Amino acid sequence: MKSMASSAPQRIAAIVGVGPKLGRSIARKFVHEGYTVAILARDLGRLSKFADEIAREEKAQVFAIRIDCSESRSVREAFEGVLSLGFVEVLVYNAYQQPPNWHPTNFTDIRLDSFEKSLTVSSVGAFHCAQQVLPGMVERGRGTILFTGCSGSLKGIAGRSELCCGKFALRALSQCLSMEFQPHGIHIAHVIIDGVIGPPRGGQSSSSASQRTTTLGTTPIGVDVIMDPDAVAQTYWQLHVQDRSAWTQEIDLRPSNPPKFC
Amino acid sequence: MKSMASSAPQRIAAIVGVGPKLGRSIARKFVHEGYTVAILARDLGRLSKFADEIAREEKAQVFAIRIDCSESRSVREAFEGVLSLGFVEVLVYNAYQQPPNWHPTNFTDIRLDSFEKSLTVSSVGAFHCAQQVLPGMVERGRGTILFTGCSGSLKGIAGRSELCCGKFALRALSQCLSMEFQPHGIHIAHVIIDGVIGPPRGGQSSSSASQRTTTLGTTPIGVDVIMDPDAVAQTYWQLHVQDRSAWTQEIDLRPSNPPKFC
Amino acid sequence: MKSMASSAPQRIAAIVGVGPKLGRSIARKFVHEGYTVAILARDLGRLSKFADEIAREEKAQVFAIRIDCSESRSVREAFEGVLSLGFVEVLVYNAYQQPPNWHPTNFTDIRLDSFEKSLTVSSVGAFHCAQQVLPGMVERGRGTILFTGCSGSLKGIAGRSELCCGKFALRALSQCLSMEFQPHGIHIAHVIIDGVIGPPRGGQSSSSASQRTTTLGTTPIGVDVIMDPDAVAQTYWQLHVQDRSAWTQEIDLRPSNPPKFC
Amino acid sequence: MKSMASSAPQRIAAIVGVGPKLGRSIARKFVHEGYTVAILARDLGRLSKFADEIAREEKAQVFAIRIDCSESRSVREAFEGVLSLGFVEVLVYNAYQQPPNWHPTNFTDIRLDSFEKSLTVSSVGAFHCAQQVLPGMVERGRGTILFTGCSGSLKGIAGRSELCCGKFALRALSQCLSMEFQPHGIHIAHVIIDGVIGPPRGGQSSSSASQRTTTLGTTPIGVDVIMDPDAVAQTYWQLHVQDRSAWTQEIDLRPSNPPKFC
């Protein structure tokens, strides 16, 4: 665990499943908005680099904590670390098992342990992480849990049962939890990312509407085939700050000009 | 048509279906963010009062234009007025036919003309309004159309076929339009409001997250049974300013603590 | 109206929207199973040919009755004819407005009256026909209403708003009616036909399972790209004879080997 | 493994997850239609009683084979037995982990191992069983796999994450498999049972329509609150014998007069 904090931390956001794209952008956004952020993933070396980078940019503390979401002991230990920082007000669960290759796999070639691991990372890990933070949220009557889904959360895809089964299960979890915990003041939402996220464009994703609409007019058709992770992170933030009289349970996100597949 | 403007208006938002709750809050939000807003509904007297009120509060111009969404001629004439103000960058379609009474109606007691009118207001009106503004949006390669749905947009309800058929059709329209027009840079989204909207709480729905989370801790469980229209309007605004690399097509909104029905 | 009956008819099935494919196959199946069948469509000449043909094949009475589902008066008059035959135990609603051409239409080129008519044929006509037969079904505590949907009933398609809005609305109607009338013993189901129906293969679609499985082994992959209307009609029949303790509200049907579209 | 067969078996149906209600009725139906049936469950004693009973009633062979769907070795061994009988043409997967009690469980009280086991039985077991039979089906270009879902397959329920996550995952599996294997002639369907199944009513669930419609008229409203497993099994059979030009991927079943819950 890498700490750059000194004074007592109060408002903690834990981002589980942080790679170079979405997780990093979400972490940066919450740091930027004043949260003490813990980022968690399996590769501590890479994670520490992200933490340093965000900490430097935002002049704030960022904690890098190793987690293996397929190991219950690792989840427990990681959250001992997270919870020691203070009240975890926000949990973002982003982790899933990357398929071994980009192409679909013949169903009969999928190894049982690979299928099980994918299900475990997508859904059992989410279950377990949620259990670590919910008691504190219930006690304080507030908190936000955001789960990351994909197009495979809604519809099965040939050759993608590993991904889809885990993501369907995660969606179920988000619905069950919102039914149970929203009356306790805990906002639980499922974000369906229906597209490919690229590197941040380095733009001002949080730019004001007037800037945006000015530049929109000059954007040539054909751009926006891939998604800017900073733009996606902006929606995660907006979900978190929604007023509790009007909460979203499920939202989709896709590029304006998605590629056509056959 | 009531005008309080003098200089040339540029950024127009048209809000169709404006009553004392959601429509009014959306209008106020877009005025507050710098848009020239036209509000449209059947009752011009009430509408003018809303326009005056918002114009006074926000020190801005608001146009009240009569529309009967069940009459094609009225739609055309109303949008001649709207389009004369300038480029309509935003259309919010909020109109639907109020059921004659609160209780479900026996199916065999529903009058054919009542069913037809409900379908017309919910979906034909939306079709027609969208046709008025889309050519301009396509020409400029930008624009936002937001359609308002409800829980009856997703699932049939006994005794509510008038509402549900129209709202299902509206959801279809929003999906067809987004498939066709998002590659042209036009954002089309469907907002499912799954709850009862009350009067604005007069609070700062656009308050910063830090204020909000501070006060959340003291909110007693049991509140947030009804929805604050200002909070809902905030989500409409956020949809409008989403980056075009990560657009939402469908989002739901409900109170954290919805009433239980049998 | 063309009558080939002499004795008192008792078990009536009315099939609305009968062309050379699905409607005709459903009609033939119900005739084959002993029902007195009325077939209804706009083109009485073609309809009468179908009625003659089925009557000859099945040695039974078939009634051809003209209906224009976009005209309320035509619906009422047609059902006066149908109801004069006796208790209408089964209604199949199959009618929809054929799009003017096979290719998707630019949204801004769709005429308002064309959109309205499509919505009317798909959903208002279904509403009106259901109203004609439901009082008799409620009185007797039994009956079946089957609505025909398509892939456009579930998801919007670019350039197909006329079809999709009507078919979404029809799906809503089927759900509302089943919520209200299933406790009265009336079975209401929605059949989603997700594929292209071809001409009947002239095979024994109702062949026993043993015959079927014997021949299956020799069927080359690549067949079954289009759907056999007799096979589809078989599922309509099975829905009708489902035991009331286990009723289907929605079912999909597609060929085993659907064509791939881009 | 208990064998009552002597001659060479050819057409095998394997029913996994057989208790006194649905599994038993499905087994009996397939035996009645001429299949050699293997029934599989954890409790071999009870299973053998069912096998004896059906074998006696139908004068046919029924195999009882122990399986623990949460143990990969048990699944493999059980299917060695099943596959030794001949080509498995039909697989019905019915198994799920009964929740420890009828009432919903507080999320934070659910044990991690209990959640994992439920997910394993509902979905990993289904994955594994499907892998055992699919190579043979692909080789012969035919076969049917039917998965049993429930209302928790479509929508999360407060306090039911164990059930819902597993059942959502199972639904994903059924969709992925149908996308991949239907073009190979293998029919894969998901049956959503949205209601409580009771004991068989002992009626003729396969009675002809004329008998059924005669008796329907006298059925008092208020019956059909629970589902007859023989009636449900009838739909499983009908799915199996569907023509391959018109296959169902998903179907729901519920009693005509379901109980109202708050």
From TrEMBL, chains A, B, C, D:
<dbReference type="InterPro" id="IPR036291">
    <property type="entry name" value="NAD(P)-bd_dom_sf"/>
</dbReference>
<dbReference type="InterPro" id="IPR002347">
    <property type="entry name" value="SDR_fam"/>
</dbReference>
<dbReference type="Pfam" id="PF00106">
    <property type="entry name" value="adh_short"/>
</dbReference>
<protein>
    <submittedName>
        <fullName>Carbonyl reductase family member 4-like</fullName>
    </submittedName>
</protein>
